[in-house]
Write a structure and sequence with these properties.
CATH topology: Nucleotidyltransferase, domain 5
Pfam families: RVT_3
Oligomer: single chain
InterPro entries: RNase_H-like_EbsB-rel (IPR052929), RNaseH_domain (IPR002156)
Structural class: alpha/beta
Organism: Brassica carinata
Strand order of the largest sheet: 1-6-5-2-3-4-7
GO molecular function: nucleic acid binding; RNA-DNA hybrid ribonuclease activity
Protein name: RNase H type-1 domain-containing protein
CATH superfamily: Ribonuclease H-like superfamily/Ribonuclease H
Length: about 210
Amino acid sequence: MDTIVPSAPDIVCKTGEEASIWLNLHGCLQKNHHVSLIAPGSNVQWTEPFSYVLKCNISSYWSASSTYCGGSWIIRNSTGKVLLHSRGSFYGVSFSVQAELLALSWAASAVKDHKLKNVCFKFSSPGAADALTHPPVYPFSYSTCHEVLRNIYALPKSAIWLVPRSCNLAASAIAESVISGQRFQSYVAFGGPRWLAHWLDKEAASP
């Protein structure tokens, strides 16, 4: 008797189909959740949000050799003033998309705990955007994706956007500092980090 061993693509496809069926049966698949994509070239640097909106930039930085991941989020208002920022670390992260999803989930949960509203979440990982847009294709990340979207859409008038990395430089610098400086202690603070003050002021003053 010949033994037929399914190929990896077949396994992934079958797993995705089964996950989609299970999630639909249990009412877990959030069809109304989406990631809005900014058109290429619409923004190439950080810009202030509308007067009634807060902007939360989120980033991660993953070290494959140590499996550590640094995460950060930074909230600014329509004048560019930093209201809050946070730095965090995660261990045992297997790949970069997982790192970004963990950072998104952690940030969304923190912002929800602060009871903010009218928040525009912005990140720069196309891989994470694909996972959030097509959760059944990423069954092992679905739980994290669900947490991200559940927390974000629990906030009144909030949304999530994929933006170019050039629009996310401050958050990226904070996340990278976790690994480069071995700053594994997590914290939340008012205002921005002092070592980024010049850059944050420059972005706030940009047209």
